[in-house]
Amino acid sequence: MTAPVRVLVCDDQALIRTGFATIIDAQPDLEVVGECGDGRAAVDLARRLDPDMVVMDVRMPVLDGIEATRLLAGAGVENPVKVLVVTTFNLDEYVYEALRAGASGFLLKDAPPAQLLQGIRTVASGAALLAPEVTRQLVGKYAARIRPVPGTPEGTALAPRELEVLRLIANGLSNSEIAATLVISQETVKTYVSRILTKLDLRDRVQAVVYAYRNGLVT
Q1: Which residues form the Response regulatory domain (predicted)?
Q2: How far apart are CA 161 and CA 98, in angstroms?
Q3: pTM for this prediction
């Protein structure tokens, strides 16, 4: 049997934290290995317990969820942990900063239990929990903040077709939409996406979007 996904739950509200833990632990393929109420404790517990992923609140005492995410999943972190941010704010500055800090996705706290569980499984599998239409909205709201400074080099490690696919990802297109635009199969698109993430050392499509804007590949 496949080992269950080991989850650390971090939220400063005990009722929400307990609720999440109860929902997660009731699933045969998921296991809560720890709970905590602030970002510093999340970092310490994650480093000690080595969970597969962390369900992370944003606004917390001692150390907020954004900085905790950066310490656990940010650039240059050895053995980064997957982080799913759960917040009361929909696509606000906090969510954007958390994604930029290394989170693999986000959910709202009022999401139904089934959506929380799906989100955990999605992030644990290595995918990003960010629908294409959400990517468009996120980029539309915050693109100006991730524009490159003069002289930022482009992603020259990518082949021309890979650059084309990356630009389409950054514009919020799904795999099926990219396939239709380039007149190729969805399987071919998946192959290109995988190559792009590998070559640029990115974990998911969210990071690919930020990379594209920061390196001047999208205007």
Answers
A1: 6-124
A2: 30
A3: 0.68
